[in-house]
Amino acid sequence: MNTNKVPVVKARSTVEIEYKAMAFLKLTYPDLLKKPAPFPGAGFFDSGKITEILNYDYGIENLNDAEAYTDFDNKRLVLNKNVYEGLHTGCPRALFTLAHEISHIILHSNEIRYRIFNNCQLNKLNRSKIITYRDPEWQANAGAAALLMPWPTMLNIIKEKKLNLFEMATKYNVSYTAASIRMAKYDEYLSKKKPPAYFGGLTSC
Ligand SMILES: [Zn+2]
Fold first, then answer.
1. Residue 103 CA to ligand 1 centre (angstroms)
2. What residues contact 154, with CB distance under 8 A and at least 6 apart?
3. For the ranges 39-48, 111-120, 137-146, which has the lowest average pLDDT?
4. Protein residues within 5 Å, CB atom, of ion ligand 1
5. What's the gap in Å between 145 CA and the centre of ligand 1?
6. Residue 204's pLDDT band (cuts 50, 70, 90)
7. Nearest-CA neighbor of 71 among 83, 82, 85, 59?
8. CB-based contact 35:159 (threshold 8 Å)
9. 140 - beta bridge partners?
10. Phi, psi at residue 7, to the nearest 5°?
């Protein structure tokens, strides 16, 4: 979903998004909640789990102006050909793109399809006009970070102080920027004094 105008969706907090991402990982790759490792993007895409777990069709197309898109109406996730190839060569950006689209399905499919099938108007606005927590693109990026760098394993990294940002990025096969933003999010949670029990709750999710 890379158009300028996007549908305004219901507000979602980062905590809610963390939980949704972990519930998805528990169903698909529970080991990723235990120790830091890359989300197996190519394997996931090729395995049919998109249909099996998410009940979406999927495909590869030559897209001129987008890396990928999620068609909620027809329940279909499409990757641009070079993104699909990037998954197979371990390209962090390709992996983030797949995780972003998966997050759209996890977070927005029911809500948007409900509106489509009840003939409710999708209120589309430029992203700059939407409050962050109601911006589906912000939510999908937060979901992608949560899928690729799950909290329970982040906690281990931070507790053990074994990895710097470059090493962390390599461990999860994400970009340095994505690792930096994720680490900043951790600091933000700490500054708001989210209690350790909160993290404990996440690990048992
Ligand atoms: Zn999107």
1. 9
2. 36, 182, 186
3. 111-120
4. 1, 137, 140
5. 13
6. very low
7. 59
8. no
9. none
10. -70, 140
Asked if residue 109 lies in contact with residue 23, where contact means CB atoms within 8 angstroms, the answer is no
CA of 2 to the centre of ligand 1 (A): 6
- What's the topology of domain 5-203? Arc Repressor Mutant, subunit A (1.10.10)
162 C-alpha to center of ligand 1: Å?
A: 33
Per-domain residue ranges of the chain: 5-203
- What is the C-alpha to C-alpha distance for residues 23 and 125, in angstroms, rounded to an integer? 30
- How many A from CA of 125 to the centre of ligand 1? 14
- Distance from Cα 31 to the centre of ligand 1, integer Å: 27
pLDDT in tens, 44-97: 999 999 999 999 999 999 998 899 999 999 999 999 999 999 999 999 999 999
Residue 173, Ramachandran bin (φ over 0: left; ψ between -120 and 50: alpha; else beta)? left
- Compute, in angstroms, the gap from residue 104 CA to the centroid of ligand 1: 7
Distance (Å) from CA 55 to ligand 1 centroid? 19
Q: Which of 102, 112, 173 is nearest to 144 (CA)?
A: 102
**Can you give the pTM of this predicted structure?**
0.89
78 Cα: distance to centroid of ligand 1 (angstroms): 12
